[in-house]
Amino acid sequence: MSSEKEVNGVSGRRLSCSTCFDALWFCYSPVHQMQQYYRLGQLDNCSQKWNALFDCLSLKTKRSSEVQEILETREKEKTHIWTFRTQEEASSNWKEVFGHLDEIE
Hints:
5 helices; mainly alpha; three-stranded antiparallel beta sheet; about 5% strand; flat
């Protein structure tokens, strides 16, 4: 068992597209399609999974140094899941979203 961390199908210097293929395979399963229909009211066309697989396969044609550089820049460009606000921004956003609760009827 390797001690290297696997991120987005990338394990150290080796790029593996099997996670992208597995995600695409699961996307067409009845379980996933029914979950999407229940949650969103429509079936998933799996285009994001296809794009991820094609992207992974195109990365396989590049040199490993290029792949590491591309993946590092993508990681830096990702937006963080949390948005940080100043106290004033948080206060104004709170009043905008929940300000109607303070009004007396």
